[in-house]
Structure formats: C-alpha cells, structure tokens
Design a protein that fits this description.
Blueprint: E1 30-33, E2 51-56, H1 63-70, H2 73-78, E3 82-87, H3 91-99, E4 105-108, H4 110-119, E5 125-134, E6 136-140, E7 155-158, H5 164-175, E8 190-193, H6 199-205, E9 210-214, H7 217-223, E10 227-231, E11 242-249, H8 250-255, H9 257-276, H10 278-293, H11 299-305, E12 309-311, H12 317-330, H13 345-353
Parallel strand pairs: 2-3, 2-4, 7-8, 7-9
Antiparallel strand pairs: 1-3, 4-11, 5-11, 5-12, 6-9, 6-10
Length: about 375
Amino acid sequence: MSAARPLTTLRNVAVIAALPLLLASCGYGSETTTTDEKKVAAEGAKLSADTVRLGYFPNLTHATALVGDQEGILQKELGGTQLKVSTFNAGPSEIEALNADSIDIGFIGPSPSINGYTKSKGKNLRIIAGSASGGVKLVVNPAKIKTLDDIKGKRIATPQLGNTQDVAFLNWVSEKGWKVNAQSGKGDVSVVRTDNKVTPDAYKSGSIDGAWVPEPTASKLVSEGAKVLLDESTLWPDKKFVITNIIVSQKFLTEHPDVVEAVLRGSTKTNEWINANPDKAKESANAKLKELTGKPLGAKVIDAAWPSIQFTDDPLATTLQAQADHAVKAGLLKQPDLDGIYDLRPLNKILKAAGKPEISDAGLGTK
C-alpha cells in the first residue's frame, strides 16, 4: 500500500505481545524522590499508601509525567502521600521494575505494556489511561533520500527490535511491497536497531541514512541536517495513535485504588493544563528534562518536536489493536488473547465526575 493510505484496521480484539527479547535489559533506571517543599502538599490527608512509586522516561512523549511532576500537580492530588519518581531509558527496564515491585505506576509505550501483560499471563499490570499520541517521524538524509521510494536499499534506524516504532516501520515497508526479514532487519531495506541516544551520532557518521523514531530524537536529527519525510500520524485515522500509556501494578490497583485515582486525577489535570498552556508546558517539560539529564533540549529541537505530540487521556485502544495486527503480520509474534488488559474504570469515574465523556477500551477491558 502507498504511504498516503491509512494503516490496516485490526479485524478483531487481539493485541500485540512484543518479543521476549524486549525484556532482556539491565537495571531499573535512575531514582529520585519528590521531597522538596514546593511539591509535597502542605495540607491534605495521607491516602492508603505512604508512598507511590512512579516511573517514566525523560522524553517529550512522556511530557504528562514531566510536567505533572515539575509543576507539582501530581503531588497536589496525592496530598500527604509521597510521590517517589524513577526514570528509565527503555520500556523493558520499566516493565522489569514493575514486575519486581520496584515501581507501582508507570508511563510507558504500547509494545512494552503488552509485553509485560503477556509475560505475566495477564497477572501483573493493567493499562489505566492514555497520555500521548503521535510524535513519531521518518527522517532522512536529503542528499541520499528525496522521495519515499528512495528508502529502498537504504539503512534506516529504529529504536529496538520489536518496539513500537520498529513494528510501524516494518508494516510500512511491507505495505510498500518490499521484503525485510523482521528478525535480522535485512532485505529490500536494512533496518538498523539503534538506541535513540546514539542515533544522532550514527546519522552524523553516515552509518544510517535515516530513522523512524519518536521525539525528540527525530528533531535532533533534523537539527543535524536531516529532513522529515513522513509523520507517522498521517498514516492513522484522525491522525491519532497511542505512543504513551499509563500502567499500574494489579496488586497496587487492588490495594490502593484511592492512590491510583489520585494519580489519574493528576494526569488528567496535567493534560488539561498542557493543552491550555502549550508554551508554558513546553518550558516546564524542558526544565524537568534539564533536572533529570543535566541538559535541556535546544530551542530549535523542542520547538520542532512539541507540536507533533498530542496529549490525551484516551489510550486509543483501537490503535493498539492495529499495532498488534502489524506485528503479527511482520512475523514478530503470535497472536495472544489479551482480554482484560485495560481497566479504565478509575479513569472514567474521574472523567464522569468532571462532566467529560467516558473512554472506550475497545472491548479489551476488565469485566
């Protein structure tokens, strides 16, 4: 299928289980505790847990967490319950932390969410909300690639074998009629699995000709002279697809539903604030990135990256289903039964109280 046509809609409610390889990562990320006075509520009763341990990435597609933490919105909703934050560089390590009871709630992409669910046979986590849509682009060296057809025969980076962007690129290649071995990445296009942190250097060295990557990596490449050839959102109905979910340990959800609801109130209020104050939110996210990584994003990078990300409470369950179909078609996984991966009841309770419409789990919710 040509690049202008929408991605195939999933025929049923099966969802993606990313490769077992995705769990082979090291460590549980860096950890900080939100204890400074400006973020710990001066008043407010402690909820059923003394502490809630939250994980997220220092990444613009996790800006709900960045801003909610930076502005104290999450802590305000938690009252006397302490917010303890850990940051991660990849989904597999965050899933490991959740499964090892090192974190309670996490912001994370769709493929590791599904992988964590299937590896535990549906016992360890639930998706409880969305956070962000979009923010993924195909960027290329304009001296080597001028049209989408020029991708054939070139070396294109994706972040990780079987991750969300890898699946999307393999599906796009397939619909162009080209053949690629999903495991090796070899074929009519060479798929080079490269950590987002080193992709800009790989581009500068000439070892890759382009990349299908999330923000801010895409805009970092553009700042090095690359060109955006395709925004993945143009391939999806309504230009929306899930890039970040909120997940929770099932044990924590059962034992501390009040804390989970407080975090969700914080995330929905943060998204509302981000959408109402995009410039302030962009500055807030960058300030948190500076605190976490030691260096903020340059204005050229963040100004280009920010508009391509949509912040939403909706986990866009139907697009997760479509991603599943693509991964199965690519031969990366078998098609499992993941009925019950979503529990949107706490989120919909909050939305209903705010006079907002409830959100669908596309038939994959907890019964």
